[in-house]
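To close the section, here is one more complete example, presented without commentary so you can practise reading it yourself. The ligand is zinc ion.
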Amino acid sequence: MTPKQRSHEMGIFARQLPVRLAPYPDELLSSWIIRHAAFYEIPPLAMLRHCLPEVLSLRAADLDLNEGQVVRIACMFSIEPTTVRRMTFSNIPQSSRRLIAGEPRQLCCGCRPNIDGSHIILRSQFLGWRITCPLCGGLLQSIGVRDRRSPFSRYHRAALTGERILDNEAEHGIKNWVSPSEIARLLLMRRVPKPLPDHYEPSSFRVLGVIIPDLDDVLKMETSELPTPVSPILPLHLRAALLAGVAIVQRAGPEMLYMPRGHMMGENKARFSNAIEEIVDCARQSRTSSQLHLI
Ligand SMILES: [Zn+2]
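Output:
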């Protein structure tokens, strides 16, 4: 069948595609749609809007499909709705979404999927809490920048725990006494607001450096600054520090959050104090209600 004939077929069978390509494990929905578009020789957005005319971009389809839209895609591609949902980020709660990158940031050299010349984009390539590949467990590598050895190798075990904790929250909605992604956000706050003249600490220093002291020395050598709490996706070689910090705070409990306050100044100290008071209050309330539940 020529591409023209295929496109014609698509017009006739508006609801179901005559040929469907099998999704690769952990493949992102937009990647799968792009592969189909290449097969039918039409633009990827046209492929998506053939099924969901109201969706404006492939990125929107990856992030925010509702149940009805998932079913419509599943119907067109003759596949289970659960399979379609698993290819998107629609299961990820708002608190973890800051950690989803806008473009692929990393890849696993052991699992570089390529089918018939089509490059496959995996969901895990966007996730800012991952340092290992969910398919093979191997270490991920950066895309577009020279890979650098992590200066936090001695925190590797704690970092793996942090990765699991953040993954459990994002993918399965599991929290302990606090949202791990909220801890990650707080740990990236600056200890001092900038500029503070004659202060002994550079304003690039973060709360995280109090928990992982090696970070301060590493930051003195870095040419670029760490990302902000609003978009807390660290370069891969520094990411282990944040993951380990999350694991350490989660394990130590709410009291651990009081420790960095002594290293902070000005409005940042006040904002941090308010945030942790709120977190500690919530933790206390949920502990009380679970105790009441047990009585
Ligand atoms: Zn892999």
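Once you have examined the tokens, check your reading against these statements. The chain has 13 helices and four strands. The pocket of zinc ion is lined by residues 108, 110-111, 133, 135-136, 138 (CB under 6 Å).
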